Each structure stands twice: as structure tokens, then as C-alpha cells.
Automatic annotation (TrEMBL):
<keyword id="KW-1133">Transmembrane helix</keyword>
<feature type="transmembrane region" description="Helical">
    <location>
        <begin position="171"/>
        <end position="199"/>
    </location>
</feature>
<dbReference type="InterPro" id="IPR051598">
    <property type="entry name" value="TSUP/Inactive_protease-like"/>
</dbReference>
<keyword id="KW-1003">Cell membrane</keyword>
<feature type="transmembrane region" description="Helical">
    <location>
        <begin position="83"/>
        <end position="104"/>
    </location>
</feature>
<protein>
    <recommendedName>
        <fullName>Probable membrane transporter protein</fullName>
    </recommendedName>
</protein>
<feature type="transmembrane region" description="Helical">
    <location>
        <begin position="240"/>
        <end position="259"/>
    </location>
</feature>
<feature type="transmembrane region" description="Helical">
    <location>
        <begin position="12"/>
        <end position="38"/>
    </location>
</feature>
<feature type="transmembrane region" description="Helical">
    <location>
        <begin position="271"/>
        <end position="289"/>
    </location>
</feature>
<dbReference type="InterPro" id="IPR002781">
    <property type="entry name" value="TM_pro_TauE-like"/>
</dbReference>
<dbReference type="Pfam" id="PF01925">
    <property type="entry name" value="TauE"/>
</dbReference>
<feature type="transmembrane region" description="Helical">
    <location>
        <begin position="205"/>
        <end position="228"/>
    </location>
</feature>
<feature type="transmembrane region" description="Helical">
    <location>
        <begin position="110"/>
        <end position="130"/>
    </location>
</feature>
<keyword id="KW-0472">Membrane</keyword>
<comment type="similarity">
    <text>Belongs to the 4-toluene sulfonate uptake permease (TSUP) (TC 2.A.102) family.</text>
</comment>
<feature type="transmembrane region" description="Helical">
    <location>
        <begin position="44"/>
        <end position="71"/>
    </location>
</feature>
<dbReference type="GO" id="GO:0005886">
    <property type="term" value="C:plasma membrane"/>
</dbReference>
Length: 304
């Protein structure tokens, strides 16, 4: 079932795109991640231009985050004050990211930059996740308890002025810290098409020192509004959002998430994290190889 994507300017098999969305949805349900950091590379592997893949993936993450936010709001798992500061920083970062995206697009380097950033980010995060998961599995097999890290914000965060109280997060810190974190995540959202949860959640835990009860919900709250802003920015500036592509991905991800959540209940969390780390590292290696492979056709002709 071939379908023409008007912005990507190519024909694709609609069932394959829905299947990719379903795969990411399964991962989202299994591991509790938005999946945007895997959606963009998978679309690129399939042949979607990186610019369109990044912009359309952000749109798909917006739709996939809605149900998650409502679920956490009902459980009182969202710090709206912290989330508001993160959203402001994220929206500002989205505009800055759009400017960077447009400059790189005009210079013809955006595809290479997207690939390099994915290799660095996925390689680093995948290695950290694999190390943590392997340590937990080894401790589980030997019967030794894993040392629990004390919740404490980073000394650099403590040094910032103008402290506020974030009651739901149990923090008394400067709003500049979450503002900067949201700003950087907003830039990544526009350039890479990710929700930023795979960076946001560890940063909220280990840099800001937030309580675990509100981290995921607050992260999803920020992701919802920032990916929405990133989609609007892409639609009005870079013109790279393919709504047909995003719709197909959303159909697959919503369905796949239900199956992923059921499957996750049957596996130990340590093995789930190790499996996710392995998949992230495989994608990073594939992206790295793609940067070094010589294409079959060195030169192409494109209509401007």
C-alpha cells in the first residue's frame, strides 16, 4: 500500500511506516520512554530525508505524550511550577533551535549534524544505561544490594541565585537551573525531533535532585508543550513537517504502546533496561556506519 508523502516528496509503504510507529510504541510501553530518539533514526534508515524525519517525529511525540500526561496528573505526579519553568525554557530553546536548524539547512550540513548528534547522544546514553543495568543484574545474581544514590542537586545548581520553592519536587533551588535545562532540551527537540525525556529524566534526577514520584510526569508535561511548540516552529519556518507521515506514525505508536505495556509486566526491569541499552547502542552503531559508508551514487541531481 504505497502512499505519497507531500513534504518528504517520496512514496512509502504506509504499512511499513505504521509498523515503525508500532515498534516505537511497543518500546514506549515497555520502557517508559517517548521513543522519539529511535523514531528519527529508523525513518532515516527507511529513506526519509533527515530534516523531514526530525520534524515529523516531534509531531508524533506530541500526540503520544497526551495520554501519559493525563495519567500522571490524575496520580498527582506532576510538579506544575517546575514544569512551567521547563516549558518556558523549552519554548525559548525551540526558537533558538529553529534558527540553528535553518542555518545548517541553508549550509547543506543539517543531515550530517543530525547523524553525528545521534551517534554521540545514543552512544553515551546507551553505554550509561548498559553499565547501570549490568551492575543491577550482577548484584541481583550475587545477592548484594545495590548502593542507593542519595537525592541531592548538583553543586552548580546550588550556586545559582534567586531560589524558589518547588513543593511537589521537594526542592529549594534557583529557577535558572530548570530554565537552562528546558532551553537545551528545546534546541534538541527541534534539531533531532526528540521529546528529550531520555535526557530530561536523568538530568532532573541527578542534576536538579527531584523526587522520583514527579520526575516522569513533569518530564511528559514539558515534552507535550515543547514538542507542540517545536512542531509549530518547524511548520512555519523550516516547512519540514509531513503531517501524513506523522499521522501514520501516531496510529502505529498508540497501538504498539498497549502491547508494550503488557509485555513489560512479564519481564524484570533490570533486563528491560539492558535490552533497551542494547537497542540504543545498535542504532548508534548503525548511524556511525552510515556516516562512513560510501553511497552507491556519489552525486545526485535534485530539482530546486
Amino acid at each position: 500500500m504505497d502512499l505519497y508523502l507531500p513534504i518528504a516528496n517520496i512514496s512509502v509503504n504506509a504499512l511499513v511506516i505504521i509498523g515503525l510507529g508500532g515498534l516505537v510504541g511497543v518500546l514506549s510501553g515497555m520502557f517508559g520512554v517517548g521513543g522519539g530518539f529511535l523514531t528519527t533514526p529508523l525513518l532515516i534508515f527507511y529513506g526519509i530525508p533527515p530534516t523531514v524525519a526530525a520534524a515529523s517525529a516531534a509531531t508524533q511525540v506530541t500526540g503520544a505524550s497526551v495520554s501519559g500526561v493525563f495519567a500522571h496528573v490524575q496520580r498527582n505526579g506532576v510538579d506544575f511550577r517546575m514544569g512551567g519553568v521547563l516549558v518556558i525554557g523549552g519554548i525559548l530553546g525551540s526558537f533558538a533551535g529553529a534558527g540553528i536548524f535553518r542555518v545548517l539547512q541553508d549550509s547543506g550540513q543539517i543531515d550530517t549534524v543530525i547523524a553525528i548528534l545521534y551517534v554521540v547522544l545514543l552512544g553515551t546514553i546507551g553505554a550509561m544505561m548498559a553499565k547501570e543495568a549490568w551492575t543491577s543484574i550482577a548484584a541481583m545474581k550475587t545477592g548484594q544490594p545495590v548502593a542507593v544514590r542519595k537525592r541531592r542537586h548538583h553543586p552548580l545548581v546550588a550556586a545559582l541565585p534567586l531560589r524558589w520553592r518547588f513543593y511537589r519536587s521537594g526542592l529549594y533551588i534557583s529557577p535558572l537551573a530548570p530554565l537552562i535545562l528546558g532551553f537545551l532540551t528545546g534546541i534538541l527537540t527541534v534539531i533531532l525531533g526528540v521529546g528529550g525525556g531520555f535526557i530530561m529524566v536523568p538530568a532532573m534526577l541527578y542534576l536538579l535532585g527531584m523526587t522520583t514520584q514527579v520526575v516522569v510526569g513533569t518530564s511528559l508535561f514539558q515534552i507535550l508543550f515543547v514538542t507542540m511548540a517545536a512542531t509549530m516552529v518547524h511548520a512555519t519556518t523550516t516547512k519540514a513537517v509531513d503531517i501524513v507521515l506523522a499521522g501514520l506514525l501516531l496510529i502505529g505508536s498508540v497501538t504498539g504502546a498497549q502491547y508494550g505495556a503488557r509485555f513489560a509486566q512479564k519481564m524484570r526491569p533490570e533486563y528491560l533496561r539492558l535490552l533497551l541499552a542494547a537497542m540504543v547502542l545498535l542504532v548508534a552503531v548503525r548511524m556511525a556506519l552510515g556516516l562512513g559508508w560510501r553511497p552507491d551514487e556519489i552525486y545526485t541531481v535534485a530539482l530546486q
